[in-house]
Amino acid sequence: MTFEEQIQHFRGIVDDVSFPTVKEWKSKHTGGKVVGMFPVYTPYELPHALGMLPVGLLGAGGIIEIDHADSRIQSFVCSIARSTLELGLTDRVKDFDAVYFTSICDVARNLSGIWKANFPHQLVEYIHFPQNMESPSAVHHYRGELQRLLGNLEQLGGKKASADEVVRSIEAFNHNRSLCWRLHEIRQLTPWKLSTYEAYILLRIGTLLPVEEHTHILEGIIPLVESRETKQRDHVRVILEGSFCEQPPMELLQVIEEAGCYIVNDDLLLHSRWFTDPVPANGDPLLALAESYIQRSVSSSVRHYGLRSRKQALMNKVRSGQADGVIFSAPKFCEPALLDYVLFKDELEKNGIPYLAFEYEEKMSVFESIRMQIEAFVESVMFFT
Ligand code: SF4
After folding, report:
1. What is the rounded CA–CA span in Å between residue 17 and residue 21?
2. By three-state DSSP, how is residue 234 classified?
3. Protein residue whose Cα sits closest to atom 2 of ligand 1
4. pLDDT for residue 307 is more than 70
5. Cα 353 to chain center, whole Å?
6. Strand order of the sheet with strand 53-56?
7. What are phi and psi of 371, to 5 degrees?
8. Can you tell me which atom of ligand 1 is nearest the CA of 108?
9. Is the pTM of this model over 0.85?
10. Would the CB of 334 count as within 6 Å of ligand 1?
11. How far apart are CA 248 and CA 265, in angstroms?
């Protein structure tokens, strides 16, 4: 298959909310366990170390109607919470044996409680990430949390994971992350070779496959991308910020690019490049994961950084990406994104960086008004800066 055919093929799988890759994996692994991973970051290494399949649980992308979820969760919350619940209530995730939610916001917290009440046959975990990164107890606390999660998975799977097995999982994900970082680098240095839409599909398919399979795909496709002969266009370079949890409609990414932007950095599917350095694959693997989370992870609106400022992290992205401007594209009702927008816009104004802001939801299907806003933004950046 050509590069373009592969992208189209993966898009078909991503859009299939019946999770065909999970069904296929289960048919080949009798008694195998599948663990759903709600964004933004969850430790994929833990289920993998026990031979389980971690799978991204990223909502329904506007593909299904919300017929049942509104009777269990408020209608004025983000679409990913409602559509993920709808997937559960319509039996589309019945093959999942466990689900991970994390302490990113009140909605995710509530969703984990609702999930527990509605799907008692599944193991439902709510991961308490450390909040005070400067505390000497933070690493110890999070290591303990990882130990608890691993213990519960061991009970689910009926076997123990050795330290060596966890180390091997860390190595598998380190390698995979290095390839995801490479895709990111290609987009930052030569954005005309790989659109954000294409990169997104290549990362998103990884949330549905065993990590080894995804790594194999990336190893084959990266050389194709590197050798692509695509023409450089007169686009403006932008940072896309705010789409870290609920996934924007893929058409929205295409509209931003068609309107004249190269997206040279973003916070889409951030788990795929969560750590800035490889997780050490020696010594105590749970301690290595905990230390990496606290000391060597990327910036995101859903975690605290102690003395490190998220405003500073955004400015670093602008500088390292040589960006002309920032586009805030946040899900409707997403508090972490909308609260950070207030901080970020002040910082950008102080530094004279142009920005544009709009909100999206999964069901959005008309993009003309956003397209016009982006075109006007691109023109203003091109002609007035
Ligand atoms: S989209 Fe925002 S509000 Fe909704 S679950 Fe994610 S972080 Fe929370």
Report:
1. 10
2. coil
3. 334
4. no
5. 26
6. 53-56, 34-37, 98-102, 123-127
7. -60, -45
8. 5
9. yes
10. yes
11. 15
